[in-house]
Amino acid sequence: MKTVATIFLKELLDTVRDRRTLFVMVIFPLLLFPVLITAITAVQTSQIRKAQDQTLRVGLTLNGNAADLRTLLSGREGFSVIEGIHPDSVRSLLERDSLDAAITVGADFDRVVVAGGKGALTLAYRLTDEYSIAERRLRETVRTFEKGLVEKRFAALGVRPDIVEAVAIEEQDVTPMKERFGRTIGGLLPYLFVIFCFMGSMYPAIDLAAGEKERGTIETLLTAPVGRFQILLGKFGVVVLTGLLSAAVSMLGLYLAVSRNPDMPQEMMGAVASILDPWTILLVLSLLLPLAVFFAAFLLSLSFYARSYKEAQSLISPLTIVVILPVALGMVPGIELTPLTAMIPVLNVSLASKEIIAGTIVPGMLAIVYVSLLTLAGISLWACVRWVNREETIFRGG
């Protein structure tokens, strides 16, 4: 083991000296979450405020009815009422962005309302990417107008308006904030953790095998009085460590992003703090450990097979899509952690991590995930050893 430790430290030192590997392994995952969350929150807040402060240009066609609606719209801040628009031109005006919305009142609106019926009123608008705030503001105004008509109708009948409310509903959502927040982002976080684990393993694996071939140092290393298995274990340990380190640093980046964001609600910050407690982090990392072993074994096998650094990149880079697909599948609603999905590599990590983050993980399902991952890790390590022990693999194309 002393020999393996010596090789491990030597390879680790060489890895951290490489700026590109260090950036992908530490700097990128540490900065991604703060930059991403800060930028998204700032843009989202700006867009919501912009939509809320926007003066809506509302085309109004009353057809001699609903005079109170004109008064209501004109008296509300943030509405610019434009009358005299022909109903047939409303669509084209909305499409050309000359109007934000339009209200057309039926010709017999007042008569129908007085008779106790429902007056016809048409709202026309275009849903935009501004969080539908404009549409909600207009709908709220129309609801206020409708409420006024209903109150007048009840007053004319001498009846209290609340007589129609036979049931008083008090809703209580007892779902803990951690579970609600975990369910919301629980699919995204495992996606990022697994990707960072893979990326953190990828560049050291390429450099420690194909890079050694290209530099011509692999032959020197093999002539040392050290077994090939010990050399592989030393390199293997570095690749596993860098993968786990990259995933752990991404968790740290997430925590820093949320804790340092002034626009983040306190309730949500508390939920994130509970999600990123030591026990949750240890559980997620314990899932990533056998996955990192699998990644390391597979990536080192391909890297030793490649003739050069460039060929290793061309072989390994497309595998990112292969890793992304099962993780993305775990984000699909309805895909749950079952005895079947718990045995599917990568997907089981995504689903189990989501359950851990939400605080709803079932110990039995977690045990199946561990057994599946440990079995996969053992098989992949055994296959890697067999593959690297072949002369035609090490000296392919030499």
The coarse overall form would be elongated
Q: Helicity range of the residues?
A: 55-70%
Major sheet description: 4 strands, mixed
Question: What number of structural domains do the residues give?
Answer: 2
Question: Which helices and strands, and how do they pair?
Answer:
Blueprint lengths: L1 H16 L1 H35 L2 E6 L5 H9 L3 E5 L6 H6 L5 E5 L3 H6 L6 E5 L7 H25 L19 H9 L2 H28 L2 H5 L5 H32 L6 H10 L2 H28 L3 H8 L2 H11 L17 H12 L4 H26 L2 H4 L4
Parallel strand pairs: 1-2, 1-3
Antiparallel strand pairs: 3-4
Task: Walk me through this protein's architecture.
- The chain has 398 residues and is mainly α.
- It has 2 domains: 2-43 and 177-394, no CATH class; 55-161, abc type-2 transporter like fold (3-Layer(aba) Sandwich).
- It has helices at 2-17, 19-53, 67-75, 90-95, 109-114, 133-157, 177-185, 188-215, 218-222, 228-259, 266-275, 278-305, 309-316, 319-329, 347-358, 363-388, 391-394, and strands at residues 56-61, 79-83, 101-105, 121-125.
- A 4-stranded mixed β-sheet has the order 2-1-3-4.
- Helix 3 links the parallel strand 1 (56-61) and strand 2.
Top keywords for this entry?
abc type-2 transporter like fold; 2 domains; 17 helices; 4 strands
